[in-house]
Each structure stands twice: as structure tokens, then as C-alpha cells.
């Protein structure tokens, strides 16, 4: 009988079929390195012999697509010195699937192990046996009810023995996708779970938002909080490049926006800067965005009211501020969906943001379930998030700040906190960006994170730089604007050319997201009132100080105050007057 032979791509010589091994010793497959106990193919021309499992000859392909490395196909490569598996972190003496572009390789066992996103093989359950193991899905230790898959080389807990491909959590806007730890899209820099805020270090399989690219959850947290699970359906972007890498459609030249009664026109070119009427001072700020209440600069794309020329309607929106969803879920406020309001219902449109604990105008995400929602800073105002804080929460769970050499990670600290902000010394805040290295003891409150890196004073031609330390801690330090002392441990704005230094709040304003000087009709007063800010002067007997008693309660009016210029009267804002 003629010998049965094949020419396999894995070897240069013909391979002879053997139904069983005649060798007295144990031999191993040259490709997968597992013992050969049954039929195989052998090369009689090589020494040592090249041996191939029949199953390997039938199933192994030249090239595979694997979820571990979705960017490029992996090609089967022969053994070479120095080969290393990127999955198990072990040297490879056998064949390897390899990407030459990325220099990424996995051995055949690991390629099989992570072949499927959803595990669909039958597990062998080892019950009533004390076997210590580490779960390959959640990374936690176990010693009972081991679920074992010999095909994929998986050891998992019972609750981790099946995971859906997608889940939908109620307080996140997009579906989360099951993502393995060695995928290119695995969020390696996300150290904390977006659901429980616990560390992600030992999690090999997580649920990740490939749309936001900032939301990641332990698989146990995602399953526990899932409203919808889906193991079979795929979305159009599952087999294509990431949505963020695709070419985005151009923004519309004109839009109708729910926040304004007129159509808005897109402005994208470099914009002219108007001269200041007082001293011809030039600044790169041309307007204020009515959404986030932050400056629109000469290089920003923004929408403006199309009827501005005819109706003198000065309404402006950053391009990104015009694209916010009107309804959103936030993990910070899991109970209810938040609604985007173009203006708070208070007299002056001012609200207090829950996350940064400061006042703002403009757009705000609001919880309108006031009767059943107990998460309020001020009961009269309700739960609000300003646009900047909503971005910080949703997209910047970690950030790199030039004031510190390590990454900072977002944490929620409810109740009394031991944190102290390095920027301003404050300790009573809800949200913090902190360094996880305890020896650093570096924490930043949200208002300090939101400080711009540069600022400009109307009477100075130079930009002032946000400065984090002083060279002489023992010297006396003063603010050039309020003329009061400065704490040398706290941040300040400075100009080295002019030797100019000032408090951040003195140049930006105590509430930079509130537009002062607006006129409003107050129910408790017959005349129009103006929104102003007042505080005590640091200079004794300063004649510029103009603190008046409240018309309603008789106590001094400080902070944000309604002022009537006709009556020379002041009224506390609602929530701060003891007569209300």
C-alpha cells in the first residue's frame, strides 16, 4: 500500500501519515507542542523529526483574525529564538501567530483560548473539590465550583462561565461591549471601574464603551446593573474600524437649536477680534458661549444667531455645545435621566453645579424628579450639572495635569473628605482628581481642574500663566488686583515680564461661568434688579467696599446679589436669605 502523504504549508517537505506512533517515548507536535497520542503526519527527511497532529493539519490555517489583535490578521510563523507570547507572557519554542506590523504574537494555545468573544463551549464542572484557582474572566481567586474548559484553557467561577457580548446599563448612553485584556481596544489606562470606582487591575474581561472610549466596568458590575444583554446581535461598527476613527460628517452650515428662537449659522474661519472700547486692548476672546459660559476664541468653531445683524440678537454656541444630547444618563446620578435645560428656571438663570459646587449660568443637565430625588446640595435648586462638568465626568475619568507628574483619576467623595486641594486648599468638594500613589498626596478639586492655563487682565498686554509654586516660600506674597495676601502654597496667575501676580478668582471672577450685570424682574421688588457680586475688601476701611443689608432679611448681602440702582437696595439670591 502506498504511503499516504500531504504537502502542508507549515513544512517544506512532504509529510507521511501515521495512524499511531511507534516510538517508545512521548513525542510532541512541532506546531502546537502538545503530546501526540493518536494519528499524525511526520517528515522522514528532518532530524529531529517534524511531527504534526492530524487535527492540527486539518484545522490550522495560515492566517487568522483574532479579537486579541483586531487591527491586522495574524500569520502563522515557524519557531524562532526570542519568540514571546503577548497573552501568557511566556517564551514560545513552537509556532506562533504573529503580526509583523505591530510585532505582536501569540502561541497556538492562546490563539485558541481567546478565539471567541462569547464562550460557547461546554464547561466541565468540578464540584466539591478544594482547588485554588484564579478566574480568567474576573481575576478573583476561587476554591470551589471550578468551571473548566479544556478547549480554551479557561478556569472560571460559575458566575463567569457565560458572558453576553453586549450589555446596556441604564445610566450610560451607549451599549458596552465585552472586551478582553489583550485586545488593542482594551482600556489599559482606565484604572477604575465606572460603576463601583474599584480598581480594574485584575480584570481580564471587562465591558467597555467603544463609542465614548472612557467608560469601563467590571464584568460583574456591568451584568449586575444591566438592563439589556445581547450575546448574538452585532452592531455595524463591530466589524469595522472604531467609530472615532471613521470620517465624521461635516457639521451643518445652519441649524435650528432648541435653546434659541432663531436659526444659527456656523462660523469656522479665523475670526476678527474686536477692540476694547476703553483702551484698544486686544484679546483673543471674541464672545461668550451661551451654553458653557466660557470664552469663544479666534480659533473656535461656533454657531451664532443668523438674525444677529437685523435683530441685535447676540447668541453664540461652541460647535460642541450645540451637539449635546437633550436627555442623558450619568453614572453620577443613577436614579433618573437628566434633561438639558438651556436656562435654569431661577430669576437670573443661575444654578449650582453638583459636581464642582459652584454657580453657573447657561446650559445645565437637570433632574426634574424633585419629589423623589434626595441628591441635592440645595433643596430649592435641585440637581444640576454644568456642561464642563458633564464632559469631565463622561470623558475624563483620568487626566494628565502639568502640575503633577503622575496621572490623576476621578473619584467621588460624598460626605466629609480628608482630601485637600493642592490648588486652593479646599476640602469640601464632591468630585476630585487624585493621584493613586499615596506618597504623593496630590488632589485637585474640580474648580481648580477647570482653571484655564492662561488668563489676561484688561490692563495688561501679556498673558498671565497659571503658576503652581513660588521660589521663596518665606517671603510675603500679595495679589496685585485685590492687594490682599496670597498663600504661597496655592496656585496663582503670574507674568514674569511684569512681575504681576494675582489670585485666580481676582482675574477670572469668583464665578467665571456667571455673566454679571444682567437685568431681571424680581417679584419682591418694584424695579428691575441687576445681578452683581460683592465681597468684603481685604483692605481695612476700604472706601470701595459697598456691602448693604438685604431688603428682605436685614443681613449683609455678600456673594451673588440682586441690586437695585434706583433704590440703592440689595436682595439675597433665593436660598440664602433667612426670610425665605
Radius of gyration: 32 Å
Separate helix tally:
7
How confident is the prediction overall: mean pLDDT? Answer: 77
Uncertain spans = 231-248, 275-283
Structural class: mainly beta
Q: How does the major sheet shape up?
A: 5 strands, antiparallel
Biggest sheet strand order reads: 17-16-15-14-18
The CA-CA distance between the termini, in Å, is: 105 Å
Helix share, percent: under 10%
Strand segment tally: 42
Tell me which oligomeric state these chains represent.
Answer: single chain
Strand residues, percent: 25-35%
Overall 3D geometry? elongated
Structural account:
It is a single chain. 7% of the residues lie in helices and 27% in strands. It is built from seven helices and 42 strands. The radius of gyration is 32 Å and the shape is elongated. Mean pLDDT is 77; it is low at 231-248 and 275-283.
Amino acid at each position: 500500500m502506498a504511503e499516504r502523504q500531504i504537502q502542508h504549508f507549515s513544512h517544506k517537505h512532504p509529510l507521511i501519515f501515521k495512524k499511531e506512533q511507534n516510538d517508545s517515548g512521548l513525542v510532541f507536535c512541532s506546531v502546537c507542542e502538545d503530546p501526540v497520542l493518536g494519528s499524525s503526519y511526520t517528515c522522514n527527511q528532518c532530524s529531529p523529526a517534524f511531527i504534526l497532529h492530524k487535527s492540527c493539519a486539518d484545522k490550522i490555517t495560515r492566517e487568522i483574525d483574532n479579537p486579541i489583535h483586531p487591527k491586522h490578521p495574524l500569520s502563522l510563523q515557524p519557531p524562532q529564538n526570542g519568540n514571546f507570547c503577548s497573552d501568557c507572557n511566556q517564551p514560545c519554542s513552537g509556532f506562533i501567530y504573529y503580526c509583523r506590523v505591530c510585532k505582536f504574537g501569540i502561541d497556538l494555545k492562546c490563539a485558541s483560548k481567546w478565539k471567541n468573544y462569547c464562550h460557547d463551549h461546554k464547561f466541565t464542572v468540578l464540584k466539591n473539590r478544594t482547588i485554588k484557582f484564579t478566574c480568567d474572566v474576573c481575576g478573583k481567586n476561587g476554591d470551589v465550583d471550578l468551571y473548566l474548559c479544556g478547549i480554551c484553557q479557561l478556569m472560571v467561577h460559575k458566575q463567569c462561565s457565560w458572558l453576553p457580548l453586549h450589555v446596556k446599563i441604564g445610566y450610560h448612553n451607549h451599549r458596552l461591549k465585552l472586551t478582553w485584556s489583550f485586545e488593542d481596544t482594551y482600556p489599559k489606562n482606565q484604572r477604575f471601574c465606572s460603576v463601583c470606582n474599584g480598581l480594574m487591575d485584575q480584570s481580564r474581561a471587562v465591558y467597555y464603551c467603544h463609542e465614548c472610549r472612557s467608560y469601563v466596568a467590571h464584568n460583574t458590575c456591568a451584568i449586575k446593573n444591566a438592563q439589556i444583554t445581547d450575546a448574538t446581535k452585532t452592531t455595524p461598527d463591530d466589524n469595522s474600524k472604531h467609530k472615532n476613527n471613521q470620517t465624521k460628517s461635516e457639521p451643518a452650515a445652519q441649524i435650528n437649536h432648541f435653546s434659541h428662537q432663531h436659526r444659527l449659522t456656523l462660523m469656522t474661519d479665523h475670526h476678527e477680534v474686536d477692540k476694547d472700547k476703553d483702551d484698544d486692548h486686544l484679546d483673543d476672546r471674541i464672545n461668550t458661549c451661551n451654553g458653557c459660559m466660557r470664552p469663544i476664541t479666534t480659533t473656535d468653531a461656533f454657531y451664532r444667531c443668523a438674525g444677529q445683524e437685523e435683530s441685535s440678537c447676540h447668541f453664540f454656541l461652541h460647535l460642541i455645545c450645540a451637539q449635546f444630547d437633550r436627555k442623558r444618563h450619568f453614572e453620577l446620578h443613577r436614579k433618573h435621566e437628566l434633561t438639558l435645560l438651556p436656562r435654569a428656571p431661577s430669576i437670573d438663570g443661575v444654578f449650582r453645579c453638583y459636581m464642582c459646587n459652584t454657580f453657573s449660568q447657561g446650559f445645565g443637565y437637570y433632574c426634574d424628579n424633585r419629589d423623589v430625588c434626595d441628591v441635592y446640595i440645595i433643596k430649592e435648586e435641585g440637581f444640576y450639572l454644568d456642561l464642563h462638568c458633564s464632559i469631565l465626568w463622561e470623558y475624563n475619568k483620568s487626566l494628565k495635569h502639568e502640575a503633577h507628574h503622575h496621572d490623576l483619576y476621578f473619584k467621588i467623595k460624598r460626605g466629609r473628605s480628608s482630601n485637600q486641594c493642592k490648588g486652593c486648599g479646599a476640602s469640601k468638594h464632591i468630585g476630585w482628581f487624585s493621584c493613586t500613589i499615596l506618597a504623593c498626596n496630590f488632589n485637585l478639586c474640580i474648580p481648580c481642574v477647570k482653571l484655564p492655563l492662561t488668563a489676561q487682565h484688561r490692563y495688561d498686554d501679556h498673558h498671565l500663566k497659571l503658576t503652581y509654586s513660588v521660589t521663596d516660600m518665606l517671603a510675603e506674597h500679595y495679589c496685585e488686583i485685590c492687594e490682599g495676601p496670597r498663600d504661597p502654597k496655592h496656585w496663582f496667575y503670574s507674568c514674569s515680564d511684569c512681575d504681576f501676580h494675582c489670585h485666580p478668582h481676582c482675574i477670572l471672577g469668583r464665578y467665571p461661568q456667571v455673566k454679571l450685570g444682567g437685568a431681571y424682574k424680581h417679584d419682591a421688588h418694584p424695579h428691575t434688579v441687576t445681578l452683581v457680586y460683592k465681597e468684603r475688601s481685604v483692605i481695612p476701611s476700604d472706601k470701595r467696599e459697598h456691602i448693604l443689608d438685604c431688603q428682605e432679611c436685614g443681613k449683609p448681602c455678600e456673594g451673588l446679589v440682586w441690586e437695585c440702582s434706583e433704590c440703592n437696595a440689595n436682595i439675597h439670591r433665593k436660598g440664602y436669605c433667612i426670610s425665605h
